[in-house]
Amino acid sequence: MVNLILFYIILSLLLISTVTFGIIWYKSNRERKSLFFKLFIGSLISAIGLAITPAMHDIIAGIGILVIMVSIIYIYMVSKGKATNVFLKYSMMSIVIGALFTVMGFCFKSYSQQGLDREAAITKSISDDANSSSSSESKKEKESEKDQKDLENANYLGYKYMLEDVPKNTNHIITKAYMDKDKNYNTTIFVNDQISSLSGSELKRYVKVVFDKVKKLEDGYEPNEKSGASRIIINDSSGNRLAHSSFFTRKIKYDFE
Known about the structure:
The chain has 257 residues and is an alpha+beta fold.
């Protein structure tokens, strides 16, 4: 926060200096060799320096330090009589500008690093949210799979128990109904002697009624974990197969035609 405030203070000073030196130069003789023109250009370059990429901040600070060192050495040499004082006033100004460059470079570098740190933190937060969301979706999928298996198992048990009541519910026209676990859990049906004694179209009609009743019961308990590859098989009282359901279409096929 302190670096950010210092950054805006320096930027404001540079902008004010640029405008001030520009106005003074404009209202004077407007010579490009004048001191105010040079100050105007220097302040302008310094202000623009704040907008360049963070990779240049070390260079800006380095230039500032170099300018300060050269100016101090020059002032020292003048004080010892080893150099003329022609550029003395420029040296003092260079120290000020060099200090601004140094502070500006380190200050803005720190400020940019804070921005990079915030960006990295935001990116990590987004990544964590994405991972959390992915984990949540995976958990929901597993729960959904478990719910599906539970439903299929419940339907299997329900269908199995309902088949046991079929003889009573059909006045024993169907004498026995069960899922044969030894034969791929096919639904096996036996009809009474009255149906078995029929023939031709009449037998076909009664067998179709029996098949439709069992098929409707089976459909009411789908999905069923055992019925995916199973069929409905209808036998006469002696165990001879009268009809069965097609494996692919699930429609009735007669075995006595």
